[in-house]
């Protein structure tokens, strides 16, 4: 079948996620035919350096024969069995231990899901169950942040703080959103550290407003990813931790993007020295080769969850799917062979040396990075931080010019994002930055 026929079939039958059908009708779809290492290839032969690791998930790139072999071997040994009703299988148990061994010391249990969205839905269930078990069933309010992304199921999207998503469905009740620590966007007189404290204290204000005996949990991404790689000032997380501890509310850190190495630590909670009650994970756990997500649970929460005398009435047919678990076990094994250290040292340094220099480009108001993730804020005027008219149009233009330059970047409004795979080296980061510069030139 030729590319045009394929695009026609796709346009006629495929309902795409996060896609405007009018764009498909106008411009057609980009058909990705194959991938190798850090590169993807379009069916028309165009080769692109994948600066987004797929959707922030193929952290070890696309060529990992050991993961493929683990998947194939598992299909032979046990292609499916469930983990309901007192059943387990070797890969689910091994993976739960392997993840616990790498997580902060006090998180030792894992509930498996198929995705990050399901994990965030599940954590709502676990939070309610925890407070019921503690004898405080009135504690049901969950505080989250504006512009957060926690997935697109009803629960995940309700926890998320994206207005354009909320406009399309009726959100769950009793979820309350506070400001994000977006210092550049706030264009404030406060220093970043003062602003970090100021936004963290929004949590305390919200707890007091709702009544501390009503609040169950606070959920946040360690660095907001899809919202534009919003890196909190250093003062932010210690203050959030202090407030959660002071009011005894559960802290959920959604590490779907940052878990498994992107900050140069297994989990960003370790990087920021946060002590969460739950960590949400997905994406990089299998290098994106199989769908798998989950909720890691702290010992103090597990103790309460396990004290209930009735069943936990929650789970998915594919919770702990053996093939996905096999892919994850091998992914963790490969990541353990120096990749996390490489992100923390060589690649973090390369990003600071090259990516941050993009701030000199006339279109860039701020270039920021942490570990192996980066963002550029496109502005019309650097000193006033005035944006371009057209709500993200500059970002769309830059995304298109980036593809012309052979680099996949993502646009979130007028913020350009990259999250490249860990298999790159310093020279690739230089190359990637040069392509980004070229894309910015073309977008001017
Ligand atoms: N949480 C965060 C922080 C995410 O970035 C995402 C996806 O991008 C999700 C949850 C949802 O994960 P999934 O798409 O696997 O449902």
From TrEMBL:
Protein name as it appears in the record: Aminotransferase class III-fold pyridoxal phosphate-dependent enzyme
Gene Ontology CC: one annotated term: cytosol
InterPro entries: Aminotrans_3 (IPR005814), Aminotrans_3_PPA_site (IPR049704), PyrdxlP-dep_Trfase (IPR015424), PyrdxlP-dep_Trfase_major (IPR015421), PyrdxlP-dep_Trfase_small (IPR015422)
Swiss-Prot/TrEMBL cofactor(s): pyridoxal 5'-phosphate
PROSITE patterns in the cross-refs: AA_TRANSFER_CLASS_3
Record's keyword terms, sorted: Aminotransferase, Pyridoxal phosphate, Transferase
An example Gene Ontology molecular-function term: pyridoxal phosphate binding
Family, as annotated: Belongs to the class-III pyridoxal-phosphate-dependent aminotransferase family.
PANTHER family with a match to the protein in the record: AMINOTRANSFERASE (PTHR43094), AMINOTRANSFERASE CLASS-III (PTHR43094:SF1)
């Amino acid at each position: 079948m030729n590319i045009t026929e394929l695009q026609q079939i796709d346009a006629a039958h495929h309902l795409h996620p996060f896609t405007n059908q009018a764009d498909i009708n106008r411009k057609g779809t980009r058909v990705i035919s194959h991938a190798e290492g850090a590169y993807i290839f379009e069916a028309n032969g165009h080769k692109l350096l994948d600066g987004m690791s797929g959707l922030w998930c193929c952290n070890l790139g696309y060529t990992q024969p050991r993961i493929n072999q683990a998947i194939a071997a598992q299909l032979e040994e046990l292609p499916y069995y469930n983990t309901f009703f007192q059943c387990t299988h070797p890969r689910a148990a091994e993976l739960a231990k392997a993840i616990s061994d790498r997580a902060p010391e006090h998180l030792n249990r894992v509930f498996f899901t198929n995705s990050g969205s399901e994990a965030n839905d599940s954590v709502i269930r676990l939070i309610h169950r925890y407070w019921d078990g503690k004898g405080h069933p009135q504690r049901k309010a969950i505080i989250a942040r504006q512009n957060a992304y926690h997935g697109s199921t009803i629960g995940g999207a309700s926890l998320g703080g994206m207005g354009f998503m909320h406009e399309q469905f009726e959100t769950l009740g009793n979820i309350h959103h506070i400001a994000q620590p977006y210092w550049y966007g706030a264009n404030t007189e406060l220093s970043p550290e003062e602003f970090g404290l100021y936004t963290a204290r929004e949590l305390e204000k919200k707890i007091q407003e709702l009544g501390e005996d009503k609040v169950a949990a606070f959920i946040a991404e360690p660095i907001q990813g899809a919202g534009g790689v919003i890196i909190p000032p250093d003062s932010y997380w210690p203050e959030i931790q202090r407030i959660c501890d002071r009011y005894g509310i559960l802290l959920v850190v959604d590490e779907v993007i940052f878990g498994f190495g992107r900050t140069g630590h297994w989990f960003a909670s370790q990087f920021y020295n946060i002590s969460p009650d739950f960590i949400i994970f997905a994406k990089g756990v299998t290098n994106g080769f199989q769908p798998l997500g989950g909720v890691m649970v702290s010992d103090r929460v597990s103790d309460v969850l396990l004290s209930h005398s009735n069943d936990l009435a929650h789970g998915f047919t594919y919770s702990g799917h053996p093939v996905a678990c096999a892919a994850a076990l091998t992914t963790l094994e490969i990541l353990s062979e120096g990749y996390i250290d490489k992100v923390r040292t060589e690649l973090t340094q390369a990003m600071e040396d090259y990516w941050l220099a993009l701030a000199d480009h006339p279109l860039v108001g701020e270039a920021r990075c942490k570990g192996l993730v980066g963002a550029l804020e496109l502005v019309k005027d650097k000193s006033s931080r005035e944006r371009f008219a057209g709500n993200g149009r500059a970002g769309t233009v830059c995304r298109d010019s980036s593809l012309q330059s052979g680099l996949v970047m993502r646009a979130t409004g007028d913020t350009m994002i990259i999250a490249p795979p860990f298999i790159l080296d310093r020279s690739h980061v230089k190359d990637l930055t040069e392509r980004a510069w070229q894309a910015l030139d073309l977008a001017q």
